[in-house]
Amino acid sequence: MSIATLERSPPAFFKQGTSAFTKLVLLMVVSVLLMVADRQWRWGPQLRNTAATVLQPVQLALAQPVYAARWMGNYLHGLHQAQQNIAFLQQGVLSAGARSLRMEALQQENQALRHLLNLQATLTEPTIAVQALYHVADPLRQQWVIDQGSNLGVVAGAAVVDALGVVGQVTRVQPWSATVTLISDEQQITPVRNARTGQHGVLYGLGNNEQLALRYTPNGSDVQPGDVLVTSGNDGVYPVGLPVARVAFVKPQVDASFANIGAHPIAAIDATQFLLVVPRATTTPEPPPATPAAAS
User: pLDDT tens digit string along 240-272?
Assistant: First the structure.
């Protein structure tokens, strides 16, 4: 191949078109012509309106992600605000409910205290106001521990009552507390009489707070469901006439001489809080003075 046949033109990489100065001059001329035409025929506003009309869907489409992000931010902020409001309202409802429960509890306590004061006024015996602390942790015994003991004159054998009726009897005394055995205890026996007929009987505890048994009542005795059994005073422990139980059922027994009679305690022995202790008399009556004839 001869040297004369080689291409002597520069490669395409080094080829240059219109110069930059020429392009600048051309663009300046076009700009001046457009400004003159716009001033002469007012093409600018029409072109802008046309361009705005054509580009509006594009602008709306491009703005949708921004609108969506803004809407999502507002939604999340509103949701968070709503959750805070709900939590605040729930806290207010809970606080109001707690206050209502406390008020109701205080009203119940005040009512129980008023009933207890009324009962205390009707008793001729001296009484000691006490408060039940807790139930003795023994599944075989029905007992309460009260907050007063020998420091206030509580003695073993003293009767314990609430605003409704008989609760039990003091069986153990400590200096600052005492144990009360409830009438529902299996080892507790309470002499009673029927307030309607005056018939006497013996009420036995059965080991639960809802059931008592009136035993040794002959078949055919005038005992009806709903009869109120009150203390007879025969044991020298309970004052006479305090409500003890209400007869629940009467079932005559063919194969026995005594009827099967069940009763429910009248006192709130499982939920009582304020109690009265009626101490037993520890002194015996003095003998009558000797007559002159006996002295001789």
Answer: 888 999 999 999 888 888 999 999 999 888 877
CATH number of the domain enclosing 199: 2.40.10.340
Helix (H/G/I), strand (E/B), else coil: 138: coil
pLDDT, tens digit (0-9, with 9 covering 90-100), for 93-133: 766 665 665 566 555 556 665 666 666 666 667 888 888 88
Position 215, amino acid: R
Residues 232-236: contacts with CB within 8 Å, 24+ apart? 232/191, 232/192, 232/193, 232/200, 233/191, 234/191, 234/200, 235/190, 235/191, 236/280, 236/281
Number of domains the chain is built from: 2
Q: Are residues 93 and 141 in the same domain?
A: no
The answer to whether 273 touches 131, Cβ cutoff 8 Å, is: yes
Phi, psi torsion values for 163, nearest 5 degrees: -70, -15
Q: What is the pTM of this model?
A: 0.57
Residue 32 placed within a domain: no
Are 130 and 276 a contacting pair, CB within 8 Å? Answer: yes
pLDDT class for 20, splitting at 50, 70, 90?
Answer: confident
Q: Are 259 and 221 in contact (CB under 8 A)?
A: yes
Residues 137 and 201 in one domain: yes
Distance CA 118, CA 115 (A): 5
DSSP secondary structure letter of residue 291:
P
Residue-number span of the structural domain to which 57 is assigned:
46-101
In a domain, residue 106? The reply is no
Residues 93, 188, single domain; the answer is no
Distance CA(76)–CA(89), nearest Å, equals: 20
Burial of 177 (0-12, 13-18, 19+ CB in 10 A): middle
Do 204 and 248 belong to one domain? yes
For helices 43-122 and 20-41, the axis angle rounded to 10 degrees is 80
Q: Are 171 and 159 in contact (CB under 8 A)?
A: no
* In a domain? residue 241: yes
Is 162 within a domain?
yes
